[in-house]
Specification:
Layout lengths: L2 E5 L5 E8 L16 E7 L5 E4 L11 H10 L1 E2 L5 H21 L1
Antiparallel strand pairs: 1-2, 2-3, 3-4, 4-5
Length: about 100
């Protein structure tokens, strides 16, 4: 796994690394472009993470301009658990409204 840091044209710092994936046995539910691995772009402030499947194998030798283009074409990724916490919060809000309506 390579790790590369670069700054984009807006002055934002990023880290990029590749994720190599071992194929599971049986069904594979990932999109085809992610089945062999992907490239991760994470802003150094931790506010944004992106994933890119079918990336160039020599990506770690690319210039910051080329890396910025790849990053821009990558899919915005949610943080693990972020959707779960949001759904949990909505459920608690609904439960609270139900309690108030029952009174």
């Amino acid at each position: 796994m390579a790790l590369v840091s670069f700054m984009d044209s807006k002055g934002r710092s990023w880290r990029a690394w590749d994720v190599e994936r071992v194929r599971p046995r049986g069904e594979d539910f990932l999109e085809a472009s992610f089945r062999d691995g992907w490239l991760v772009f994470e802003s150094e402030d931790g506010r944004e993470r992106r994933r890119l499947g079918d990336y160039p194998r020599r990506w770690n030798e690319m210039s910051p301009v080329e890396l910025e283009r790849l990053c821009a074409s990558a899919t915005l990724a949610t943080r693990p658990g972020a959707l779960g916490r949001a759904a949990e919060t909505r459920q608690h809000e609904r439960e609270g409204q139900g309690d108030a309506a029952a009174r």
